[in-house]
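INTERNAL AUDIT FORM
Audit reference: QA-55
Scope: verify that the stored structure record matches its stored sequence.
Auditor: D.O.
Record contents follow.
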Amino acid sequence: MTMSRRTMIAAGLATAAAPALATAATRGASNAAHFSLGYAPHEGSFASRGGLLEQIAYAADQGFRAWEDNEARKRPVEQQDMMTRALAQRGMAMGVFVASMPQWADFRPLLGANDDAGRNAFLEDIRTSVEVAKRLNAKHMTVVTGFMDRKVPEDIQMGRIIDCMRRAGDIVAPHGLVLVMEPLNTRTNHPGVFMQSIAQGYAVARGANSPGVKILADLYHEQIQSGNLIPTLDACWGEVGYLQFGDNPGRKEPGTGEINYANIVRWLRARNYAGVIGMEHGNSVEGRAGEDRLVAAYRAIDTK
């Protein structure tokens, strides 16, 4: 199988050619100015450029300083290691991966239920994700706090979920890791989930009172469910650990919908936000034209 130059640079596989590749990587790493914030594409953002490693290299060449991979936990260890080397070689930070994925079709887990089965399985997912995070040099891991249990009063569910997240925080905090709980909208995408807003995530994070438990503020979901984005971020900022962008409607790149992401970026800059911002959305146009449009969209909000 023929290996392209970009894949070799990204993966760091050709030991014998290391000096030549290092020189080539130095020449190719600054094709575009770095973005001022840590926007993180994911596999599929630049699908026309090749596989996972080639897409990482291409993203770095466009000035992106981070990468996000929801599916990283499911990847073979060898591929996780290759991705980690590729990111390190390009000086890119690793964003979130999903530590515990709900069973969407079965509307589970029920972390607030009367039995411990869902909570125990969730906590086991968290334990086994710690080594994955270390392997990937990731600090943040996404969790979803499950679905509503219609048989249990909501306040009781809230208390049980707070207790569960506190226990989860006790697992990850000693390793310097952070679980970021993602509130999801119920109007378009995820009917029946328990955590539906950043404000609700704030209540759980405050209750858990752990450095290992924060909120993933996905602004696509929040815009659909609640709106009022900047005041909500301002009120809950102390418990926000990670952000994701995506415009509404459509969940595509900034500029395709109603959210004023240039204002969001200005707000983040004023707070000296230095973390990763996941590009948790698709491209509005297919192929390379769409990829060019994606880069342009982030240049537009990053420079205003």
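Auditor finding: record pair retrieved intact. The two ends are 45 Å apart (CA to CA).
Action required: none
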